[in-house]
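Usage

Read records sequentially. Each one opens with the input sequence:
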Amino acid sequence: MVSSAILSLGPKQFLGLLGSYFSILRQRIKVEGCGTVPKILLVEDNQAAVVKIRQFIENIDTALELLTCKEAGAAYILAQKQKVDLFILDIQLKDYKGTSLAAQLRGLPEYKYTPIIFESALAGEELSAYREVKCYGFLIKPYTEAEFRAVLCDALGLSAHLHQEEKHIQIEQKQFILDYPVSEIVYVEAFGKKLTIHTRNALSGMKEDVISGYTLIRFLQLIDDPKVVQCHKSILVNTAYIDRIDKAGKEIILKGSAERLPVGNKYQSALW
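and closes with the structure output:
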């Protein structure tokens, strides 16, 4: 729910508040791994539109870095030389179609998930843009500053999230090393001198690996992530995957699963 205090703000006050938000966002990005303020690449061959967008961005936060290109080819080369956090692409470029440029950018590993905003003077192109390159936002010309601001804020928030450095844990076994993104570890079970690691990702779904040579406590120390806690003498759980907790039954119900994990009396304080 939007605060009544925010609704009562005038345009200048609201823009000032939004500027404060982006100052905080910049600091968060620096701390979490991006290292610099967000860098936006605008590909637009209409100079009047470039001037308007530059002013819109400066009204949000003057520290946001805007790069501009008039041609798709130059933009593609620039994107390989400098790390871009967000793309704004005009679909009707004189030398190339914006969606084709976006598809090429998606072919570069570093831009597979980078937010892309399309702008177009023609309505009805949104669906193909979303289908072809999974764009993040779409602006129909002429759009207002408020419309631009709303789409840009959401996209930069996503960019900040994507720039968070993914934490991994490496497990040495006799002949190989297993590498796990901590965000994919759902829970870990101990059976005697072995551990079963249950992971989940969008491509392979749920997966189980059995490893030896690690105790549950040592594994927890290696992960060193506050989201992963011990819920039972023989189980660790990633709280990001908890759907709900049955306090009466002392059980954890996992997201997207009928599976239940027990909660030991000794470990309840870590969960509720």
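Summary fields computed downstream for this record:
- The first strand starts at residue 39 and ends at 43.
- Residues 4-162 form a domain with the Rossmann fold fold (CATH 3.40.50.2300).
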